[in-house]
Design a protein that fits this description.
Blueprint: H1 3-12, H2 22-30, H3 45-52, H4 83-90, E1 95-96, H5 106-120, H6 130-145, H7 154-162, H8 164-169, H9 171-181, E2 192-193, E3 197-198, H10 199-208, H11 219-226, H12 236-239, H13 242-251, H14 257-291, H15 313-343, E4 347-348, H16 350-363, H17 365-368, H18 375-388, H19 416-455, H20 462-488, H21 494-515
Parallel strand pairs: 1-2
Antiparallel strand pairs: 3-4
Helix pairs in contact: 2-5, 5-6, 16-18, 20-21
Length: 516
């Protein structure tokens, strides 16, 4: 078996809850003297020698990592060796006590059940001894549910198996996020890794990624996802059952303001009646004293309040219905707040973190990707665009630029006939493309010829070209002279200006005539 299968067995038997989580079970399970041993292969000789080998001075003691690298004469420098660097050189990775692929032997499975009973009833004072706890676990959980109940539906199992390649692809980045938001992620280096995420830290993570925004996913929805596989009766979903509210309201009718008003009105009317009865009694006593010849006591008139009318039945029922809705909403809000305080310290392992991500992706399926609808595509988009990219300001990691295909296309072997048909189809496609290219080239040539013919005009002979050149030179010379004359005669009279202009015009006309 693996540790993940142990978790599944405990979930099917309704063992895990907020007071007995998988993280707590893993810690208690690994406290066993032989339960923390890891099955090693031939490629992990260094790790085997380090964990199980003896030191040079005393073969009964575990060998230090520094024995592999330090000289025998430099024993004082052994403490200065960085264990983390040595582990990397030896290829030794920390042993995650919450790793879902840890191997569990049969004897370890039996011990796991005993340790699960100890965790499940650790806070139960009525079940004191370990034998009583184990008996209670068998009678109330293992015997009724083992092999008969499934915590996960077949669709949930299928969905997780389909999306496993996506989680494998993004495992490094998701673990970086998991460790960054966990307060245990910055613990000193050790060969045993115990990193979990509390519910409050998980809520903070999804709030910073703008997934848990109160609209698309509420805090109530998130807590229900976290507690899906917890023992029934301890979950928020069970506490929010309307039957619980109905029983609470029946035992506390004064929760409704209308009942409070009715009670206050009845108390006032009862006090009023007491005052009236007391006044009548004193008056009767005074009358009796007068009949006996005694001087009666002076009785002052008291201000008796008027009698208040009762609330009509129709009005009372209408107010009850309206106020019941408001009280129910407030009751739900208070219940969620109290349960959040109760569950915020509950720990989540990395495997549960992946289950939460998948559940959120399924819940937001339409918003994430409403085109393909394929679960692999939805989960990939959710992890990349909705989670990782929104957390890049907190966690630095590299997101793959090219997305892997969600579903591998099936390839069938081709027959000889299929290959011949494919060759003929390719030849026909190539011939059609060549013909289309030739037609396009011919059309382009026709367009260019039409443009050239539209732009062509009759060429001038040499005499006409020389005449035009002389005319241009004369016009430039006349303009230059005119500018110079204007500069010399700025202070002259208007008449002089007119004469100079006439002379200039006459000269221009004569030059034009000579040019013609």
């Amino acid at each position: 078996m693996t540790l993940r299968q142990i978790w599944r067995f405990l979930r099917d038997c309704n063992v895990p809850c907020a007071d007995a989580t998988l993280a707590q079970f893993d810690r208690i399970y690994n406290q066993g003297k032989k339960n923390h041993f890891t099955l090693l292969g031939s490629s992990e000789v260094n790790k085997f020698d380090f964990i199980y080998g003896g030191s040079k001075s005393d073969p009964t003691k575990p060998k230090k990592l520094s024995d592999e690298f330090a000289d025998s004469d430099s024993e004082e420098d052994e403490d200065d060796v960085n264990e983390e660097e040595l582990h990397k050189k030896l290829g030794i990775e920390p042993d995650d006590i919450h790793g879902n692929n840890k191997v569990v032997l049969q004897r370890q499975f039996f011990e796991a059940i005993v340790r699960a009973a100890m965790i499940k009833y650790a806070n139960n004072t009525k079940i004191a001894t370990l034998s009583q706890k184990l008996d209670h676990l068998f009678e109330n959980h293992l015997r009724p549910f083992a092999g008969k109940n499934k915590a996960k539906t077949s669709d949930e199992e299928k969905n997780f198996k389909i999306t496993q390649p996506v989680f494998d692809e993004y495992e490094t980045n998701l673990k970086s996020v998991f460790k960054y938001f966990s307060k245990k992620g910055q613990t000193p280096y050790s060969l045993k890794e115990d990193v979990t995420l509390e519910v409050q830290e998980c809520i903070n993570l999804f709030q910073k990624s703008k997934i848990l925004d109160g609209e698309q996913v509420t805090t109530e929805d998130f807590i229900k996802i976290v507690e899906r596989y917890y023992t029934p009766g301890t979950r928020l979903e069970d506490k929010l059952d309307e039957n619980n509210f109905t029983e609470l309201l029946a035992s506390n009718p004064l929760m409704l303001p209308v009942n409070q008003e009715i009670k206050a009105r009845n108390e006032r009317m009862e006090a009023r009646q007491h005052r009236i009865d007391d006044l009548e009694r004193r008056r009767a006593q005074a009358a009796a004293e007068a009949e006996e010849g005694q001087e009666p006591a002076v009785i002052e008139d008291e201000d008796i309040p008027k009698e208040e009318a009762e609330i009509e039945e129709s009005v009372r029922k209408e107010r009850e219905e309206t106020e019941k809705v408001e009280v129910y909403a407030q009751w739900r809000k208070d219940t969620i707040s109290k349960h959040l305080i109760y569950i915020k310290g509950v720990e989540i392992v990395f495997f549960e973190f992946k289950e939460i991500i998948l559940a959120l992706a399924v819940k937001l399926r339409e918003q994430v990707d409403n085109k393909t609808g394929k679960l692999k595509v939805v989960l990939t988009t959710f992890i990349e665009d909705w989670l990782l990219r929104r957390l890049t300001s907190f966690v630095k990691f590299s997101i793959p630029t090219s997305k892997t295909k969600a579903d591998a296309s099936r390839q069938w072997p081709q027959s000889k006939k299929d290959m011949e048909i494919e060759e003929l189809t390719a030849d026909a496609r190539k011939a059609a493309e060549d013909e289309k290219r030739r037609e396009a080239e011919a059309a382009q040539q026709q367009i260019e010829l039409a443009l050239m013919s539209a732009e062509d005009h009759t060429a001038l002979d040499q005499a006409e070209v020389e005449a035009l050149r002389r005319k241009m030179i004369e016009e430039e010379e006349a303009a230059r002279r005119a500018r110079e004359a204007e500069e010399e005669d700025d202070g002259a009279d208007e008449d002089d200006d007119e004469e100079s202009n006439d002379e200039t015009n006459d000269r221009d006309v004569s030059e034009d005539e000579s040019a013609v």
